[in-house]
Amino acid sequence: MNAPLHALTSLLQRSERALDAVIQPIVFLGMAALIGVITLQIVSRVFFTAVGWTEEVARFLLIWITFLGATLAFQRGRHIAVTFVVDALPPRLAQLARIAAVLVALGFMLALVVIGYRYMQVQSFQRSASLRLSMTYVYAVIPLAAAIMAWYALVDIVEFIVKGPRAGETGSGTAEEPPP
Known about the structure:
The protein has helices spanning about 5-45, 55-75, 85-90, 90-120, 135-140, 140-165. By secondary structure, it is an all-alpha fold. Helix 1 (about 5-45) runs antiparallel to helix 2, helix 1 (about 5-45) packs antiparallel against helix 6 (about 140-165) and helix 2 runs parallel beside helix 6.
Protein backbone atom coordinates (compact mmCIF):
# COMPACT_ATOMS: atom_id res chain seq x y z
CA MET A 1 0.00 0.00 0.00
CA ASN A 2 1.47 3.35 -0.94
CA ALA A 3 2.01 6.21 1.50
CA PRO A 4 -1.04 8.41 0.68
CA LEU A 5 -3.44 5.47 0.92
CA HIS A 6 -1.83 4.32 4.15
CA ALA A 7 -2.17 7.86 5.55
CA LEU A 8 -5.82 7.97 4.48
CA THR A 9 -6.73 4.66 6.10
CA SER A 10 -4.79 5.62 9.21
CA LEU A 11 -6.70 8.90 9.43
CA LEU A 12 -10.04 7.14 8.92
CA GLN A 13 -9.20 4.55 11.58
CA ARG A 14 -8.26 7.33 14.02
CA SER A 15 -11.62 9.00 13.33
CA GLU A 16 -13.37 5.71 14.12
CA ARG A 17 -11.43 5.35 17.38
CA ALA A 18 -12.25 8.96 18.30
CA LEU A 19 -15.97 8.42 17.72
CA ASP A 20 -15.77 5.17 19.66
CA ALA A 21 -14.01 6.95 22.53
CA VAL A 22 -16.92 9.39 22.74
CA ILE A 23 -19.81 6.96 22.22
CA GLN A 24 -18.62 4.18 24.53
CA PRO A 25 -18.64 6.28 27.75
CA ILE A 26 -21.99 7.81 26.79
CA VAL A 27 -23.51 4.35 26.45
CA PHE A 28 -21.89 3.30 29.75
CA LEU A 29 -23.21 6.38 31.56
CA GLY A 30 -26.62 5.84 29.97
CA MET A 31 -26.68 2.27 31.25
CA ALA A 32 -25.64 3.39 34.73
CA ALA A 33 -28.33 6.09 34.69
CA LEU A 34 -30.89 3.56 33.47
CA ILE A 35 -30.04 1.22 36.34
CA GLY A 36 -30.27 4.12 38.80
CA VAL A 37 -33.61 5.35 37.47
CA ILE A 38 -35.16 1.88 37.43
CA THR A 39 -33.88 1.23 40.96
CA LEU A 40 -35.41 4.52 42.09
CA GLN A 41 -38.65 3.55 40.40
CA ILE A 42 -38.78 0.17 42.15
CA VAL A 43 -37.82 1.54 45.56
CA SER A 44 -40.28 4.43 45.33
CA ARG A 45 -43.12 2.13 44.32
CA VAL A 46 -42.44 -0.36 47.09
CA PHE A 47 -41.73 2.01 49.97
CA PHE A 48 -43.21 5.38 48.96
CA THR A 49 -45.39 6.93 46.32
CA ALA A 50 -44.21 6.20 42.78
CA VAL A 51 -42.00 8.86 41.21
CA GLY A 52 -43.80 9.72 37.98
CA TRP A 53 -40.93 10.75 35.74
CA THR A 54 -38.82 7.60 36.19
CA GLU A 55 -40.68 5.51 33.61
CA GLU A 56 -40.32 8.24 31.01
CA VAL A 57 -36.62 8.78 31.67
CA ALA A 58 -35.99 5.02 31.58
CA ARG A 59 -37.75 4.78 28.21
CA PHE A 60 -35.76 7.68 26.72
CA LEU A 61 -32.47 6.34 28.07
CA LEU A 62 -33.23 2.92 26.60
CA ILE A 63 -33.90 4.47 23.18
CA TRP A 64 -30.61 6.38 23.19
CA ILE A 65 -28.62 3.42 24.54
CA THR A 66 -30.08 1.13 21.88
CA PHE A 67 -29.23 3.39 18.95
CA LEU A 68 -25.77 4.40 20.20
CA GLY A 69 -24.99 0.80 21.15
CA ALA A 70 -25.98 -0.22 17.62
CA THR A 71 -23.33 2.15 16.26
CA LEU A 72 -20.69 0.46 18.40
CA ALA A 73 -21.84 -2.98 17.24
CA PHE A 74 -21.80 -1.83 13.61
CA GLN A 75 -18.28 -0.45 13.94
CA ARG A 76 -17.05 -3.75 15.36
CA GLY A 77 -18.88 -5.86 12.78
CA ARG A 78 -21.05 -7.45 15.47
CA HIS A 79 -24.44 -7.22 13.78
CA ILE A 80 -25.89 -10.47 12.52
CA ALA A 81 -24.50 -11.48 9.14
CA VAL A 82 -24.75 -14.66 7.12
CA THR A 83 -21.36 -15.00 5.44
CA PHE A 84 -21.06 -18.64 4.38
CA VAL A 85 -21.68 -17.79 0.70
CA VAL A 86 -19.23 -14.89 0.72
CA ASP A 87 -16.64 -16.97 2.55
CA ALA A 88 -16.90 -19.65 -0.14
CA LEU A 89 -16.22 -17.19 -2.97
CA PRO A 90 -12.77 -16.56 -4.46
CA PRO A 91 -11.00 -13.65 -2.69
CA ARG A 92 -11.70 -11.03 -5.37
CA LEU A 93 -15.41 -11.91 -5.62
CA ALA A 94 -15.67 -12.04 -1.83
CA GLN A 95 -14.22 -8.54 -1.66
CA LEU A 96 -16.74 -7.28 -4.23
CA ALA A 97 -19.60 -8.95 -2.35
CA ARG A 98 -18.48 -7.34 0.93
CA ILE A 99 -18.22 -3.93 -0.74
CA ALA A 100 -21.71 -4.39 -2.23
CA ALA A 101 -23.12 -5.37 1.17
CA VAL A 102 -21.57 -2.34 2.85
CA LEU A 103 -22.84 -0.10 0.04
CA VAL A 104 -26.37 -1.39 0.68
CA ALA A 105 -25.92 -0.69 4.41
CA LEU A 106 -24.56 2.77 3.58
CA GLY A 107 -27.58 3.51 1.40
CA PHE A 108 -29.92 2.37 4.16
CA MET A 109 -28.12 4.52 6.74
CA LEU A 110 -28.25 7.60 4.52
CA ALA A 111 -31.98 7.05 3.96
CA LEU A 112 -32.40 6.64 7.72
CA VAL A 113 -30.60 9.94 8.32
CA VAL A 114 -33.09 11.74 6.06
CA ILE A 115 -36.17 9.90 7.35
CA GLY A 116 -35.05 10.21 10.98
CA TYR A 117 -34.45 13.93 10.58
CA ARG A 118 -37.90 14.43 9.04
CA TYR A 119 -39.51 12.39 11.80
CA MET A 120 -37.64 14.42 14.39
CA GLN A 121 -38.98 17.63 12.82
CA VAL A 122 -42.55 16.30 12.67
CA GLN A 123 -42.41 15.40 16.38
CA SER A 124 -40.79 18.70 17.41
CA PHE A 125 -44.06 20.22 18.60
CA GLN A 126 -44.76 17.30 20.93
CA ARG A 127 -43.64 17.30 24.57
CA SER A 128 -43.19 14.34 26.89
CA ALA A 129 -45.92 13.83 29.46
CA SER A 130 -43.96 14.04 32.72
CA LEU A 131 -40.84 16.03 31.96
CA ARG A 132 -42.35 18.33 29.30
CA LEU A 133 -39.20 17.64 27.27
CA SER A 134 -39.35 18.32 23.55
CA MET A 135 -39.53 14.99 21.73
CA THR A 136 -36.97 16.40 19.28
CA TYR A 137 -34.28 15.44 21.78
CA VAL A 138 -35.58 11.89 22.05
CA TYR A 139 -35.83 11.33 18.30
CA ALA A 140 -32.55 13.11 17.49
CA VAL A 141 -30.70 9.86 18.16
CA ILE A 142 -32.16 8.29 14.99
CA PRO A 143 -30.43 10.52 12.41
CA LEU A 144 -27.38 10.87 14.67
CA ALA A 145 -26.80 7.13 15.00
CA ALA A 146 -27.54 6.56 11.31
CA ALA A 147 -25.01 9.24 10.33
CA ILE A 148 -22.36 7.66 12.54
CA MET A 149 -23.04 4.21 11.09
CA ALA A 150 -22.93 5.69 7.58
CA TRP A 151 -19.49 7.10 8.40
CA TYR A 152 -18.36 3.71 9.66
CA ALA A 153 -19.68 2.08 6.47
CA LEU A 154 -17.81 4.61 4.34
CA VAL A 155 -14.60 3.87 6.25
CA ASP A 156 -15.17 0.14 5.74
CA ILE A 157 -15.61 0.63 1.98
CA VAL A 158 -12.37 2.59 1.75
CA GLU A 159 -10.56 -0.08 3.75
CA PHE A 160 -11.95 -2.87 1.54
CA ILE A 161 -10.81 -1.04 -1.58
CA VAL A 162 -7.37 -0.15 -0.21
CA LYS A 163 -6.59 -3.53 1.36
CA GLY A 164 -7.88 -5.49 -1.60
CA PRO A 165 -8.98 -9.13 -1.33
CA ARG A 166 -7.07 -9.48 1.96
CA ALA A 167 -9.59 -7.22 3.68
CA GLY A 168 -11.32 -8.76 6.69
CA GLU A 169 -14.95 -9.47 7.24
CA THR A 170 -17.55 -6.78 7.89
CA GLY A 171 -16.60 -4.06 10.31
CA SER A 172 -13.20 -2.49 10.47
CA GLY A 173 -12.45 -3.71 13.94
CA THR A 174 -10.27 -0.68 14.58
CA ALA A 175 -11.65 -0.03 18.03
CA GLU A 176 -10.24 -2.03 20.86
CA GLU A 177 -12.61 -4.72 21.93
CA PRO A 178 -13.30 -5.27 25.60
CA PRO A 179 -12.17 -8.65 26.95
CA PRO A 180 -14.92 -11.31 27.05
